[in-house]
């Protein structure tokens, strides 16, 4: 039995207590401190920094530091944390992560991770069936898994674009990129992973052609087709298109079938960024938002967003998994020996990484506990909370105004001062406001959010949309209730009024 008085047991006890008795209601989402205040707070125990010669601290100091971490960290598990495209994790995922960390192996080879290798294969097969890459009756343990786990969505996009380039020119891994001017396409509302990946691949950020999107952020298929033709006319070589299933800010979904049609016509690799919206596939009510994803060549899906897996848990699905090894293999003969036991199951030579965290266990365990119905319920609850928020905005008497209507789990809106009510801001009308009104509305969200952080009453994001700072409420946490929505809206109204009174 473990010693309950050990430092490890005491830290674990605090972590477990936080996990199983999370904050809620009027508990603070954050106890806001400045950087200087945080440094001073830790100086009273173990200190944040390290001396030139670092000595071990006493158990008392270490536990005091752990308590300070818990006190000063953002409580992402709080139902009024709606700041980003993730929230507090599913407790089952957390314990799965702990178990994986305790076993401390790498998922590169079967000999080092026999159970986890098979778990990855089973999960990738299940995800591929959900996405339509494989038939429903496909083997739960395919000989060649239809994808891989990646460190995150941006890394997965990088891998997908390398696969796309490799399909066009398999010699690129040996000879380098050459003189051909390769270009790729993504909507102007798409994720910046496209430009980061182009830079790392040596294509240059200018190789990313941003295609016009509609007011909600979905790519315009006609504009995409025109952009591809124009690139060819300039002597460039189109090789890939990134479609987006759930943009970061407005949760817009591209028409994936229309994008696929363009890719088929021009023989382009079709990658779908479903980091955020991919989880709509779990819901029978909302999976239609990704109609056409089954026609893509690759598809990235972040399970640490809507599904509450601990950071990170990203799957890259690939329609033709036989492309992985030729693109990424390094043939390290000290590790991937063909004549050892079960060598065919080794996954490390089918991805850029070798050593990899065991991200499969937490997802496998959570899915076994929650089942398909539990995963669907999580997505549908988020959708219902967003719909409720939109109805509250509509019924607010002009206190709030929708900026981007939306139909998924992000709600993008503005608070409107009483003297400007009612004010129409949706569908591009904000651009028609006079500059003084625009400046006034633009300055409100940062001020209101700062007051909310200072009091710890909630955390929501804001960002410029069509030139105007707007609030963005995201629904990831299944513990969020209509009471929490009402409380956040009331807080915005209260802080807004206080701002005007100064």
Coarse morphology = globular
Q: What is Rg?
A: 24 Å
Low-confidence stretches: none
What distance separates the N and C termini?
Answer: 61 Å
Strand/helix succession: HHHEHHEHHEHEHEHEEEHHEEHEEH
Which CATH top level class of the largest domain fits?
Answer: Alpha Beta
Specify the oligomeric state: single chain
Secondary structure category: alpha/beta
Number of helices: 14
Largest sheet: 7 strands, mixed
How much helicity do the residues have?
40-55%
Strand proportion, as a percent range, falls in 5-15%
Number of separate domains? 2
Task: Explain what the structure shows.
The chain folds into two domains: 1-30 and 74-89 and 371-502, Aspartate Aminotransferase, domain 1 (Alpha-Beta Complex), CATH 3.90.1150; 106-357, Type I PLP-dependent aspartate aminotransferase-like (Major domain) (Aspartate Aminotransferase, domain 2, 3-Layer(aba) Sandwich). The chain has 14 helices and twelve strands. The protein has helices at 7-20, 35-43, 59-72, 91-103, 114-131, 153-168, 172-175, 193-200, 221-233, 256-266, 324-328, 360-394, 435-455, 482-501, and strands at 81-82, 147-150, 182-187, 208-211, 237-244, 269-273, 298-302, 314-318, 400-404, 410-415, 459-465, 468-474.
């Amino acid at each position: 039995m473990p010693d309950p008085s050990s430092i490890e047991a005491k830290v674990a006890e605090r972590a477990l207590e936080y996990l199983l008795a999370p904050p809620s209601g009027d508990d603070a989402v954050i106890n806001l401190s400045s950087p200087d205040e945080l440094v001073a707070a830790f100086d009273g125990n173990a200190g944040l920094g390290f001396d030139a010669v670092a000595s071990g601290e006493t158990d008392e100091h270490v536990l005091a530091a752990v308590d300070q971490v818990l006190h000063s960290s953002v409580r992402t598990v709080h139902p009024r944390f709606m700041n980003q495209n993730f929230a507090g994790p599913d407790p089952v995922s957390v314990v799965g992560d702990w178990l994986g960390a305790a076993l401390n192996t790498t998922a590169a080879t079967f000999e080092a991770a026999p159970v986890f290798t098979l778990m990855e294969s089973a999960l990738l097969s299940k995800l591929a069936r959900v996405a339509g890459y494989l038939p429903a009756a496909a083997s739960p343990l395919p000989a060649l898994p239809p994808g891989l786990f990646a460190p995150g969505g941006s890394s997965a996009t990088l891998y997908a674009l390398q696969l796309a380039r490799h399909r066009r020119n398999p010699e690129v891994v040996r000879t380098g990129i050459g003189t051909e001017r390769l270009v790729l396409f993504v909507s102007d509302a798409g994720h910046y992973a496209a430009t980061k990946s182009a830079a790392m691949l040596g294509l240059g950020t200018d190789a990313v052609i941003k295609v016009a999107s509609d007011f909600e952020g979905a790519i315009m298929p006609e504009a995409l087709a025109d952009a591809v033709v124009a690139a060819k006319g300039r002597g460039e070589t189109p090789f890939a298109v990134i479609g987006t299933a759930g943009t970061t800010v407005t949760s817009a979904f591209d028409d994936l079938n229309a994008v696929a049609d363009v890719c088929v016509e021009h023989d382009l690799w079709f990658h779908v960024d479903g980091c955020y919206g991919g989880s709509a596939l779990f819901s029978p009510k909302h999976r239609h938002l990704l109609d056409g994803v089954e026609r893509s060549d690759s598809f990235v899906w972040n399970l640490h967003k809507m599904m509450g897996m601990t950071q990170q848990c990203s799957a890259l699905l690939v329609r033709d998994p036989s492309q992985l090894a030729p693109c990424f293999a390094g043939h390290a003969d000290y590790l991937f020996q063909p004549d050892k036991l079960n060598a065919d199951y080794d996954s490390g030579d089918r991805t850029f990484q070798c050593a990899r965290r065991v991200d499969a266990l937490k997802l496998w365990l959570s899915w076994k506990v929650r089942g398909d119905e539990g995963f669907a319920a999580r997505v549908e609850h988020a959708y219902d909370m967003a719909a409720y928020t939109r109805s509250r905005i509509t019924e607010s008497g002009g206190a709030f105004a929708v900026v981007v209507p939306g139909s998924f789990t992000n709600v993008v809106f503005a608070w409107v001062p009483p003297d400007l009510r009612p004010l129409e801001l949706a569908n591009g009308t904000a651009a028609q406001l006079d500059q003084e009104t625009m400046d006034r509305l633009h300055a409100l969200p940062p001020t209101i959010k700062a007051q909310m952080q200072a009091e710890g009453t909630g955390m929501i994001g804001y960002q410029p949309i069509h030139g105007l700072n707007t609030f963005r409420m995201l629904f990831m946490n299944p513990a969020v209730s209509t009471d929490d929505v009402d409380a956040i809206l009331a807080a915005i109204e209260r802080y807004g009024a206080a701002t005007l009174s100064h």
